User: What shape does this take?
Amino acid sequence: MTRGKREAMIALGLRTHPEHDPPIAGKSACSVRCLESTCNRGFLVLIQRGYKTELRPTVEQANQLARHCGVARFAFNWALGRKIEHYQATGKTLTYKEVDAEFNRRKPEEWPWAYETSKWAHGNAIRDCEKAFDNFFRRLKQGGPPGFPHFRSKHRSTPKYRVAGEAVKVEDDRIRLPVIGWVLLKRCGYLPTSGVKLLSATVSQRAGRWFVSVNVEKTIVAPENQGPAVGLDVGLKSFVVGSDGSRLDPPKFFVRSLKKLRRLSRQHSRKQKGSANRRKSADKLAKLHFRIACQRGDFLHKASHHYASNFGLVCIEDLHIKGMVRNRHLARAISDAGWGTFGVQLAYKCPWYGGKLVEADRWYKSSKTCSVCGEEIGELPLSIREWTCHKCGTHHDRDENASNNLREYGRAAVTARTVVKARKPAENPAGETVTQEAFYGNSKL
Ligand SMILES: [Zn+2]
Assistant: This one.
């Protein structure tokens, strides 16, 4: 292919598969058909993907990792405090550049210990603080619960810090982190070492174990998926019911471990504060919580992988999860199910396999509409699992009917190319107008 033609293609947003001609990575994810006339394998998709794996640091390295996390937490809290202070004094917001410059100016005098760690630890923490404010202002504008940034706690927050991709190097069984050097990985060959661009690496600690999450950008060939469409109805009785007849039982990991969890919590609360036994029982409790999280993650990944890789079109309901969790009787079961994560995973996995995800409007009546004749019925309490349509006489299973409706909703949304309605912003629970001043005023310094 000539250079001129290639440039013209790129201008049009068209690319070819890596082996035909190396693609130029765009800024955002794109999916285009390969232009090589003999190639009919599918689309090129530029994706970002995270790979998280466990580290095997030496004792000295673990100390260094902890020190990096400590500096990151300190810098984040300092930046947050500084911004609040400045706003209260002048009514103006400090920019990221000003905060970062001030930190670096004061670092040699006031915080010389920060030199023992990589500059990325505090640099990215200050950036995160800025990001937290951006998100806060965005939510304030949209009218949802604003969520003013909060200080990171030494005890409750996850210890973590992030370094840029250019500062790390990955090999099969080890990763090189700035200042610390090569750290061994527990699992060999999981992190991608070639054909990807490293964007960042985040080190975090959970239940006494160290993890690294590497974020990469890479081009994949997504098949031109001609798989069927599927509607997914998520619920409490079954975790998900698919219009293809599939039905996954709710795993209830949390509920299954509840007895053990309660016993450990009870034991923990009886230990004297600050004692070695209290620390030990806290470790035990953290380990169990981590185990439950892993079980849930495993289940959700397998489920979302199944639907994303086998179907060309997946349609799910937009669940008002936050509103539903507020219902005390259902809160635990809903949080345990992990629908939100399931939706997020489907959203990023579907494009990997050339599929599409459609989220039905929250107000779409998937349960109360007859999937055969389209008749709408008035009331359908959650306790009624089966019903008969009074117009066409079809006997419906509640969840199967909903999943059939969702499948048709997805098909219609794609063929008609109608823009699926954007999410309605959640109402402000207090029902008052929220201003940023109110938040700055309330936060403690
Ligand atoms: Zn009917």
